[in-house]
Amino acid sequence: MGTEKTTTLETATTEETTEETSESMAETLAEAAEQIEADALAEEPDSERYTHYFKRPFTYEGRTVETLTFDWDTLSGRDSLAIERELRTKNITLVIPAYTGEYLVGMAARACVDRTEEGKRFVGTDMIQAMPLGDFQQITKQARNFLIRAGL
Questions:
Q1: What pTM was estimated for this model as a whole?
Q2: Residue 96: domain span
Q3: Position 40 pLDDT exceeds 50
Q4: Rounded to a whole number, what is the distance in angstroms from the first to the last CA of the chain?
Q5: Of 109, 115, 113, which Cα lies nearest the Cα of 143?
Q6: Which alpha helices (H) appear in 43-129, and where do they start and end?
Q7: Shortest CA distance to 87 belongs to which of 77, 72, 70, 101?
Q8: Distance separating alpha carbons of residues 152 and 97, to the nearest angstrom
Q9: Count of structural domains, the chain
Q10: What average pLDDT is seen over the chain?
Q11: CA torsion 46→124→63→61, rounded to 10°?
Q12: Does 76 lie in the same domain as 7?
């Protein structure tokens, strides 16, 4: 009997601790999301265009870039649906676009205005995913901020 009571007490204590930890994590995530939104809304409203300057030249598949420019305002509903369709083919569930990394990468690839000498797009999702983490995060942050400022 004494062993059963101890086990029940330990289980109850563990469940309470897990519940408190989950609540704490949820509060922390909610606070972080609120801060991200506040930062995005504090940016200039005409920042639909963003030029990213790489810390070091970035080379991907033989092409080296020092800057990339993104015009978020050129994106359309057609682009959004195409990104969603691509994510579904990869079995990625889209809940909130502004907080889904793959969606933001798709946005950035489509919003990049840089082209080859022949006028063809050379920035794709694979190129963005291959970037150094700091550059990758800065570009996807700008995409997220655009969505938040647009109320999406």
A1: 0.70
A2: 44-149
A3: no
A4: 58
A5: 109
A6: 77-89, 101-111, 125-129
A7: 101
A8: 8
A9: 2
A10: 83
A11: 160
A12: no
Query: Do 38 and 55 belong to one domain?
Result: no
Give the pLDDT of residue 14.
55
Phi and psi, residue 45, nearest 5°: -65, -20
Residues 35 and 66 in one domain: no
Q: Judge residue 11's burial from the number of C-beta atoms within 10 Å of its C-beta, 0-12 exposed, 13-18 middle, 19 or more buried.
A: exposed
Q: How far is CA 90 from the centre of its chain?
A: 17
For residues 80 and 133, membership in a common domain is answered with: yes
Give the confidence band of 97 by pLDDT, cuts at 50, 70, 90: confident
Domain identity same for 8 and 53? no
Q: What is the pLDDT of residue 4?
A: 59
Contact (Cβ atoms closer than 8 angstroms) between residue 14 and residue 36 = no
Closest CA to 136 of 110, 112, 101: 101
* Mean pLDDT (whole number) for 40-53: 71
Q: Give CA–CA dist 60/71, Å, rounded.
A: 21
